[in-house]
Every structure is written in C-alpha cells, then in structure tokens.
C-alpha cells in the first residue's frame, strides 16, 4: 500500500492546521491519476439486472456540477452549505478541493482505496491470513436527525476499542449515514452511522462478543453482518460511498400476504457540515 513517504510527509507541512488524517488524504488527492479513467475499474452489482460499470471521470464531473447547483438552490442561506459550495466550486485539476462533499474527490479517494487495499489484502491472503468484510451498525453511532448531536471522533474511538477488545487486530474501511424514519412506531427520524470494513478475522466467539458491545441497547436489528471477502474491487469500493439513503419503515399491504413491516430506501443529499 502506498502511504506518504517521509519527504511527502514533510511536504504536508504546507497543510498546516490539518490533522494527520486530513493531510494524508490531501497527499493522496495530489495524484491526478486517481481522477482519471485508468485502472482500477470494476462492476457494481455484478450479475444483477442493474449491474453497471464503476463511475467514469466525466460522470463524476457531471455529478460535481449537479451537487453544486443543488447546494446553491437549497442551501445558500445555510452557513454549512455555503461553506461546502465554496469548497467544491474551487475544485480543479491539480488544485482539488479534497472535500468529502465533492463527487470528484470522493471518487479519487475511492479509487486510491480500492487499488491499494486490494493489493495489500492480496499479499495477506497469500500469507494464509483470514480476511472478511463486516458491516457494523453500533447503537452509539445514532442521533436525532432533526438535531444531530454526535461526536464522530468519540464514536470511532469507542468502536476501535470494542473491536480490539474482541481480538480484531486491524480494520480498514469507511463509514456513512442513513436517515431512518419509522412510520409504524413514529418518533423522530434517526441519523444512523454505519461502517463497512475489511478485517482480519480473530479466533473464538468474537462476533457475539462484538455484537454485545456495539448494541448494548438491543435497538439495532442487524448490528453486525459478515460477508466473505472475494478479493473484489467492488466489495472494497462499497466502503467509500457518495450515496446516502433515507430508510422508511412502513406497513406493506399486499393481496398475497398479511400486512407486514417493510423498509423502502431512497437516496437523499446530506448537507450537514
Ligand atoms: Zn474536489
């Protein structure tokens, strides 16, 4: 995996005031290769009727312009949205904005992640190490969507602690949010954070222990979901998303079945700062 070298890290001094993590991302995004159309490329939802190739540079540019217009139309009076508009409108080749709200920078980071994690994982698999993908939905990564009040750094610190305590030696991946609306039981919409990560599988009954730690309230239906890692670029790409869902729980009525709970997903645009 290519992480910034010592000289590159010295260059990072120019990003004064940024955290090391921000500075590493800036350094990655200085490489124009990730904004182009070369490898890596992959197929999204392979073998499904809706399968499609991963996004091309021109599509990301279009999405960038669309995001800018959308923010301008709906958020020009909102200080967070105005800040985002200013960030992403100055995104140009060799002078990228590095904002998580910018579809071009998000795609570049995703391409870097997919290629480098894929190669690092291949070397570990050759060494007979056991890797799996996990989706993790901790109950402590949730907050009221109408008045979000969540310290994301604390959530990550707690999750790292929980994963380490069940023996997971390392994890690499990303997080995203959905807005969950329960039309059956009512209540305020909940902004729920979730993680998609590649991990090295520990020994023993780690998954039940982890579930107990990340879902002590018992509120989350599927706090942990495990999937075989098939060395696929698409599986890794899923960690760094640019689409966020609104999940509505409702009662579905059909002629074939008694009324039952169902969840529908719709995309939404997040403009939180
Ligand atoms: Zn950008």
Short structural description:
With 273 residues, this protein is α+β, with helices and mostly antiparallel strands.
Rg, Cα atoms, Å: 20 Å
What is the overall pLDDT average?
87
Q: What is the name of the CATH topology of the largest domain?
A: Alpha-Beta Plaits
Q: How many DSSP E strands?
A: 9
Share in helix:
25-40%
Instruction: Tell me the number of structural domains.
Output: 2
User: Could you name the ranges where pLDDT drops below 50 across 5 or more consecutive residues?
Assistant: 11-15
> How many H/I helices?
8
The CATH architecture term of the largest domain is: 2-Layer Sandwich
- What would CATH call the class of the largest domain? Alpha Beta
Heteromolecules bound: zinc ion
Q: Mind summarizing the main beta sheet? A: 7 strands, mixed
Structural class: alpha+beta
Give the CA-based shape.
Answer: globular
């Amino acid at each position: 995996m290519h992480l910034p070298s010592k000289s590159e890290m010295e260059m990072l001094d120019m990003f004064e005031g940024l955290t090391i993590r921000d500075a590493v991302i800036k350094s990655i995004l200085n490489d124009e290769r990730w904004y182009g159309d070369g490898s890596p490329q992959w197929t999204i939802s392979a073998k499904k009727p809706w399968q499609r190739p991963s996004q091309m540079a021109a599509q990301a540019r279009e999405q960038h312009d669309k995001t800018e217009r959308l923010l301008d139309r709906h958020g020009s009076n909102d200080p967070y949205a105005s800040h985002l508009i200013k960030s992403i409108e100055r995104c140009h080749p060799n002078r990228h904005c590095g904002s998580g709200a910018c579809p071009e920078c998000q795609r570049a980071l995703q391409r870097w992640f997919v290629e480098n994690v894929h190669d690092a994982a291949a070397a570990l698999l050759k060494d007979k190490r056991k890797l799996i993908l996990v989706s993790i939905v901790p109950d402590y990564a949730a907050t009221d969507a109408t008045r979000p009040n969540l310290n994301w750094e604390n959530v990550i610190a707690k999750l790292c602690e929980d994963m380490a305590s069940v023996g997971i030696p390392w994890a690499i991946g990303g997080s995203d949010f959905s807005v969950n609306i329960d039309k059956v039981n009512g209540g305020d919409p909940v902004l729920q954070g979730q993680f998609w990560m590649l991990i090295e599988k520990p020994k023993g009954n780690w998954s039940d222990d982890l579930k107990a730690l990340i879902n002590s309230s018992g509120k989350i239906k599927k706090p942990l979901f495990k999937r075989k890692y098939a060395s696929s670029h698409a599986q890794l790409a899923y960690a760094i998303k640019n689409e966020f869902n609104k999940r509505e729980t409702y009662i579905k009525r059909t002629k074939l079945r008694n009324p039952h709970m169902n969840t529908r997903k719709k995309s939404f645009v997040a403009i939180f700062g």
